[in-house]
Amino acid sequence: MSSPAPQTLANHTRLDPPFHFFILPVYGISWILSLVLARRHPSALSIWEAILMTALLGGLLKTRLYSLKVQDRVIRLEERLRLTALLPDSARAQALKLTEKQLVALRFASDEELPALAQRAWTENLPPAEIKKLIRNWRPDYWRV
Q1: What distance in Å separates the CA atoms of residue 32 and residue 48, rounded to the nearest whole number?
Q2: Does residue 1 surpass a pLDDT of 60?
């Protein structure tokens, strides 16, 4: 089995083909069709179908957001533990200033550059995209979807 391509800023986003290219389009197309049918042929059943499809699509998207939030919380915990191990005692309290989004972005920084980059992130209040651009030695995360 071949190893995955090295991860970089340019290729770190991931798609889940069954979700992004099948499930989501099927729900989206079904939702649009239910709205079109309810508009062209209004009846209690067609209107209920449109309401149902709206609820199902909303439920699908909320479920996806819930799983991403859990991943973010786990990453936040991992990065706080890593910062505790890598930062000097004097800087550990400052690390609590980092937001969840900053911690999620910092997960790509190598151990060598993490302390300086974390300090810059909390001092300058860097947005996640800027943090990722500043990383020189990319630490891949192949698990997040």
Answers
A1: 14
A2: no
d(CA 100, CA 79): 10
DSSP 19: I
Amino acid identity of residue 133, one-letter, is K
The mean pLDDT of the chain is 93
Tell me which residue of 115, 111, 110, 118 sits closest to 136, measured CA to CA: 110
Residue 109: strand, helix, or coil: strand
Q: How far apart are CA 135 and CA 122, in angstroms?
A: 15
The pLDDT of residue 5 is 75
Under 8 Å between Cβ of 139 and 109: yes
Collect all residues with Cβ–Cβ distance below 8 Å to 19 and sequence separation of at least 6: 64
pLDDT digits (tens, 9 = 90+) for 38-73: 999 999 999 999 999 999 999 999 999 999 999 999
Tell me which amino acid residue 45 is: L
Task: State the pTM of this model.
Answer: 0.80
Sequence-distant (6+) residues with CB within 8 A of 137 are 109, 110, 112, 113
Tokens in use for 19?
């979700």
